[in-house]
Amino acid sequence: MKIVWIGAGNLATQLGEALHRAGHETLQVFSRTMASAEALAERLGCPATDDLDAVVPGADVYIFSVKDGVLEGLVSRIAPRTGDALCLHTAGSMPMDVFRGHARRYGVLYPMQTFSKDCPVDFKEIPVFVEASAPDVLAQTEQLACSVSDRVEEMSTERRRRLHLAAVFACNFVNHCYALAADVLGRDGIPFDVMWPLIDETARKVHRLPPVEAQTGPAVRYDRNVMDRQCAMLDGEPERKALYEMMSRSIHALALRNEAERKETND
User: Fold this and answer.
1) pLDDT at 262
2) Same domain, residue pair 27 and 114
3) Considering the entire predicted model, what is its pTM?
4) Residues in domain DUF2520 (predicted)?
């Protein structure tokens, strides 16, 4: 398929390269920042533009991969000029109907993964969730998604939003905790790589166990001796101390609920 990219960020870069390797042709990359458009266009072997009026006609697919806050504005400017081409966005939390009234054939292609421009990923293993405005549009969207991923599934806007919420907990919040841990270590000159085996084993365990059963640490048993000592180390940092206490309460509450459900099942 012939593709025009609207956006040149992390996801557009990784998905764009995957589609390019799969044999699809990129006609153009648009970004509001010319340097970003040119960087991705160079990787995909196509022209770049930062001019909305210069977005080329004649593509099979226009993929909008931009921040949620600017998606509707770009759709309203570009989609009406795409004719019978397929218009897709890649956002986890935005509705498919953002295209309604602007495009004839439209849908969503959402790869659930964290992306960075220069960190290659194996797209074949990434689950891609699709939604479309009509059966023929769904077939084309699935064809495009299946050319890069072995895990393609249809999912409604409402379920995809819940999926995206879960991903924020499982990825974004977890990475923020890594950043906090790195800061704690850095104050004493301890390199963050001492955490790698712990991080890797924690991730491996949830492949084998439900996350609530894989949970360890003082908060599971609500060990106030340990928790109070650690909270005291955060006395000068009220936000982090509050986060520590809130996370500990949440961990303990889930552990208690899991234990109660287990007893109920066994009775």
Assistant:
1) 85
2) yes
3) 0.90
4) 126-251
